[in-house]
Amino acid sequence: MSTGNLQDWIGRTRTATDVILADQAVKLAATLDCTPPRLSKGDPLPPGWHWVFFHEVTPLSGIGRDGHQALGEFLPPVDLPRRMWAAGDIETGMPLHIGEKVEKVSTIEAVEEKQGRSGKLVFVRVGHRFTGDMGADMREVHQIVYREAPAPDAPAPAPQMPAHQAGWSHELTAGPVQLFRYSALTFNSHRIHYDVDFCRNEEGYDGLIIHGPLTATMLMEVARELDPGRPLKSFSFRAVSPLTHVHPFSLHARHIEAGLELWACNHRGELAMTAKASLD
């Protein structure tokens, strides 16, 4: 497969507008099982919470086999069956505010094909710019990776272990109810998060996949909890391996000069996500 014709998608844009409602933020706080911050009009929205806004509302007739919007609308028609959120970078600038009307402009910045150990990969980089009528100005870039279906006899990738000792750690689980709530809040119909038969029979996982943005949001919540007086200036994360609902997992953090280094591990202590938070 060549990405030659997929390069035509570079530069395509899509615009969405939403109002940052406190009710939606309260529902996310309940889903995270955390105490809601101040959510009066004009209060800043916590970092990562913007993912429960700006829904892609696709009719059922426009849904692909995996539950996502069919490719070829905004995202390029990559002919690979598995789709995951691979990495993300957020520059908060001025945060979004409760009650603010915000415009989100998304642009496809790059399409790149690579050959990995498990087969062909296509990476699509999408940039987002958020501007609002209360002064919000936030930028985000996220990488989507498309992969081939796993071969039955394909060896498991070599696990990666954390490079440092954590200064803070916490073990938790994410069961089907929490994953259902987060899918509902984000209007995410990707079947890997709620259809366990699809996960096991079609995707080769042992259980429901915990959303990458959910794990990233949990890590941002760790940063907010450990340094409550220092607003998040930027946050970058990279997915290393999937987490599933059948096992507990753990979140970790250690202070560095610019802020925090954070990571999530599976039940065997292997890396699932790495992140860095820069704090004011």
Describe the protein.
By secondary structure, the protein is an alpha+beta fold. Helix content is 16%, strand content 35%. Strand 4 and strand 5 form a beta hairpin. It is globular, with a radius of gyration of 18 Å. It starts with 12 loop residues before the first strand and ends with a strand. The mean pLDDT is 91.
Please provide a brief summary of the model.
This protein has four helices and ten strands; from the N terminus they run E-H-E-E-E-E-E-H-H-H-E-E-E-E. By secondary structure, it is α+β, with helices and mostly antiparallel strands.
Strand and helix layout:
Layout: E1 13-19, H1 22-32, E2 82-94, E3 101-116, E4 119-132, E5 137-147, E6 168-172, H2 176-186, H3 196-203, H4 212-226, E7 232-239, E8 249-256, E9 259-265, E10 271-279
Antiparallel strand pairs: 1-3, 2-5, 2-7, 3-4, 4-5, 6-8, 7-10, 8-9, 9-10
Helix pairs in contact: 1-2
First-residue to last-residue Cα separation: 45 Å
CATH class wording: Alpha Beta
Q: State the major sheet.
A: 10 strands, antiparallel
Strand line-up in the sheet with most strands: 1-3-4-5-2-7-10-9-8-6
Radius of gyration: 18 Å
Class from helix and strand fractions: alpha+beta
> How would you spell out the order of helices and strands?
EHEEEEEHHHEEEE
Helix content: 10-25%
